[in-house]
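wait is this the right file?? whatever heres the structure
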């Protein structure tokens, strides 16, 4: 049932994301042919051609920002509107438990976040010379291996997923707690987010001091900590992120099970 719910969710959101991705890739391709960077660098005086190419590359970078912003807006809107708004009456009549609705929103949101980053990265391959990009990627790979060791290629993606999951669940938790108020629910949700964010930062500090004492002190005292210390430090952040995400999940599930108020 969860797979069916995700399939429906992906179809519903794809019609919003795919046109946005297509526009970004089209602008990347357009700028590849216009070659605005060399044009602007070689320009000796202002002209309409320079203006148009400057606007074109400006629109491309604006679209990159728009992809991130719209992704976040859609993630928030889908959870609030489908589960906490008027559509909640329909969603909770389905033979699905609240935790399945939460998992559906979370997994789909993570999927679209990954797709957004992938499409933006793909647009870089279209816009810039692939040789330069591969050279940068090789440099990045060597830097990661030198700083974190081979384990870094596992620890870093895990940390990103953990922090993304925790961040999304904190958003869902803030909205779920905000709907407990009778009035000004959006404002209450924002207030709950600020409170949860502050609590989360305190928890991170406590976890670092308790679980990663050695690596944390090493990071402070030296500019070149050992890969083990770095991986222990980042691994602690990843574990803390997953634990916080689980805690948020439990609270949201409890609210939707026992305290849901769609009036």
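ok assuming it is, sequence goes like this
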């Amino acid at each position: 049932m969860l797979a069916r719910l995700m399939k429906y969710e992906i179809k519903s959101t794809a019609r919003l994301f795919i046109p946005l991705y297509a526009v970004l890739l089209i602008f990347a391709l357009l700028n590849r042919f216009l070659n605005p960077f060399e044009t602007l660098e070689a320009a000796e005086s202002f002209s309409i051609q320079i203006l148009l190419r400057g606007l074109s590359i400006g629109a491309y970078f604006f679209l990159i920002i728009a992809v991130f912003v719209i992704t976040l807006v859609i993630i928030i809107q889908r959870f609030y509107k489908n589960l906490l708004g008027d559509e909640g009456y329909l969603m909770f009549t389905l033979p699905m438990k609240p935790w399945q609705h939460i998992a559906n929103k979370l997994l789909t949101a993570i999927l679209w976040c990954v797709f957004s980053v992938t499409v933006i990265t793909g647009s870089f391959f279209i816009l810039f010379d692939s040789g330069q990009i591969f050279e940068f990627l090789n440099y990045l790979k060597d830097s990661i291996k030198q700083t974190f060791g081979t384990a870094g290629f596992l620890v870093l993606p895990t940390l990103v997923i953990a922090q993304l999951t925790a961040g999304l669940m904190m958003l869902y938790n803030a909205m779920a707690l905000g709907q407990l108020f009778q009035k000004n629910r959006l404002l209450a949700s924002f207030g709950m987010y600020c409170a949860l964010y502050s609590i989360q930062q305190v928890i991170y500090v406590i976890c670092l001091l308790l679980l990663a004492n050695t690596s944390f002190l090493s990071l402070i005292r030296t500019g070149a900590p050992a890969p083990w210390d770095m991986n222990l430090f980042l691994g602690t952040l990843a574990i803390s992120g997953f634990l916080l995400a689980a805690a948020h999940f439990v609270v949201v599930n409890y609210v939707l099970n026992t305290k849901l108020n769609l009036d």
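The chain has a mean pLDDT of 83. so i think its the right one actually
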